[in-house]
Design a protein that fits this description.
22% helix, Pseudouridine synthase, 3-stranded antiparallel sheet, 27% strand, alpha+beta, 3 domains, 10-stranded mixed sheet, Structural Genomics Hypothetical 15.5 Kd Protein In mrcA-pckA Intergenic Region, Chain A, 7 helices
Length: 325
């Protein structure tokens, strides 16, 4: 079923961009969905195709054809979720390490999106004309912790705006090799695809996107390792992992960026003995702050370290106590 909307351009809208006028006129349509509708020729000006940047004239007739949102390609799967908070607008999940957020080659099932499609049933975002959870930030497969998703377009737009303005606050625990000097500070550096390995991210002197990570050392295990609190000011792929590795202090058990210092393989062996194949980069999103996109109330959530993270801390405490270097 297709919904038809018609809008005649008024004097105050003259010379404005098509996408901007429609976003203001129809708050239930996100800028992303408007752009997609224009590109799919579902939005016409005077019955002619146009561009998102088209400048409007008085009395132009804009026709919008909105098809009902179709089911998302990922299948709904009844997968247990650790739900920290939920209402009709948003859902906050404590994601387990090992769970992929979005379906992708090699991981089309058993992802967070598959689980949310089943859990939320009919209340899902229709962004881009596809029913799906409105995920505005991600956690790597090996990273555990808090993640918020939107259930409908308005909530998705509100959270996305906070993310863009860097108002959505995220704090992490990270276990790293060695001790950073200074023990508290800011790591800056543009991040983009590594020119040497497209599967990895890297700090780039030219290009990439601005990235800023605040860190604070909260526990030192001799000279072997440290527990950090990290706060993301920006949200780039693998940001914390890349930034810490760039300082020579990669995250423990990170297979891409965290090299194990010589003489400390016994710690890695102890972690695998306890956690087996579940051992992963020790990074945990423990605190999440945002403004509720509908009620405008400040929301703050925390979750404790998972068992494997606590196990790693115990091993480091015991190892540092015996002064093994």
């Amino acid at each position: 079923m297709t919904e038809i909307r018609k809008h005649i351009i008024e004097p105050h809208e003259v010379d404005q961009r098509l996408d901007r006028v429609l976003a203001g006129k129809y708050p239930d349509l996100s800028r992303t969905r408007i752009k997609n509708l224009i590109e799919d020729h579902k939005i016409l000006i005077n019955e002619k195709k146009s561009l998102p940047s088209a400048k409007l004239k008085e009395k132009d007739v804009v026709m919008i054809m909105i098809e009902a949102a179709v089911d998302a390609l990922p299948i709904a799967q009844d997968i247990p979720l650790d739900i920290i908070y939920e209402d009709q607008d948003v859902i906050v999940i404590n994601k387990a390490a090992g769970m992929v957020v979005h379906p992708a080659p090699g991981n089309y099932e058993q992802t967070l999106v598959n689980a949310l499609l089943a859990h939320c049933e009919g209340s899902l975002s229709g962004i881009s004309g596809v029913k799906r959870p409105g995920i505005v930030h991600r956690l790597d497969k090996g990273t555990s912790g808090l993640l918020v998703a939107a259930k409908h377009d308005k909530a998705h737009q509100g959270l996305s705006a906070q993310f863009a303005k860097r108002d959505l606050k995220r704090h992490y625990y990270a276990l790293i090799w060695g001790v950073l000097n200074p023990q508290e500070g800011l790591i800056e550096g543009n991040i983009g695809r590594s020119p040497h390995n497209r599967q990895k991210m890297a700090l780039l002197k030219h290009g990439g996107k601005e990235a800023r990570t605040h860190y604070k050392t909260i526990k030192i295990f001799g000279r072997i390792a440290s527990l950090l609190e990290c706060q993301l000011e920006t949200g780039r792929t693998h940001q914390i992992r890349v930034h810490l590795a760039s300082q020579g202090h990669g995250i423990i058990c990170d297979p891409q960026y965290g090299r194990t210092p010589k003489g400390l393989m016994n710690i890695i062996k102890a972690l695998y003995d306890i956690n087996g194949e579940s051992t992963r980069p020790f990074l945990h999103a423990y605190c999440l702050n945002f403004i509720h996109p509908v009620t405008q109330q400040e929301m703050k959530f925390k979750c404790e370290m998972p068992k494997d993270f606590r196990d790693a801390v115990d091993i480091l405490l015991k190892t540092s106590a015996t002064d093994v270097q």
